[in-house]
Amino acid sequence: MNKHLSSLIALQELDTEARQLKTQKNDLPLRLSKLEEANEKSNLDFAENKKKYDDILAQHRELESKLKKGSDALSKAKDRLGEVKTNKEYQAMLKEIENVETKNSEIETEIICLLEEIDKSKKVLQEQEKTKEQQDRQYELQRQIIKGDIDSLDEKIRKCSQQLQQLMESIPKDLTKRYEMIKALNNGTAVVSVWKGVCGGCHMNIPPQLYNELQKTDDLFSCPNCSRIIYWQNKEECED
């Protein structure tokens, strides 16, 4: 095969490989971003539920503090009951004690209801903590895999770029210029094979005479339809 044609075919193969590697790499940051978004949402949901639980505990502490103050007030009121001198004062103290007892009873009822809510919330939070631990491990595993894939693809792209540069330097500049021009006009593909009279780039039939010439000589030919550089390739032999 013509040396320059062989180099152009190799150049196209490397170009295609580099493009595929870059496409694979371009998908990875998006995957990583979605993974991080999902993890962030999970963290926010957990933090919100934890805050609700902490708020209930704070509410419980506040009620316990109010109940203690109410109990102290009740104890002091009962102590003062023996010090009153008139029936009117006595009735007033009984009324005050009754009010404090009623308020303390209401607080106790609130505390009982709150304790049930705390127990339920604690169980839910404990289950969420277990789930979050699993999600965190899975997130970190997936994050490391994606980052590893990015690093691996970066290395492959780097090597491919080096090979491309070396190969470009071995081809006459007029050919590389022609190659780049055709590639720019045809979605990154400048060199394609022809089999059974059909161009592998545009999938159109080429003239029979041109097809015969491709099989006989190593000269550089272009597809009359898409202008890509073409060469004959026996697909049956490739399959074998």
Automatic annotation (TrEMBL):
Gene3D superfamilies xrefs: 1.10.287.1490
Transmembrane segments annotated in the record for this chain: none
A Pfam family matched in the record: Zn_ribbon_9
Coiled-coil segments: 60-170
Residue ranges of domain CT398-like coiled coil hairpin in the record: 11-184
UniProt keyword terms in alphabetical order: Coiled coil
Domain of life: Bacteria
Domain C4-type zinc ribbon: 198-230
InterPro entries: CT398_CC_hairpin, Oxidative_Scav/Glycosyltrans, Zf-RING_7
The name this protein goes by in its record: Uncharacterized protein
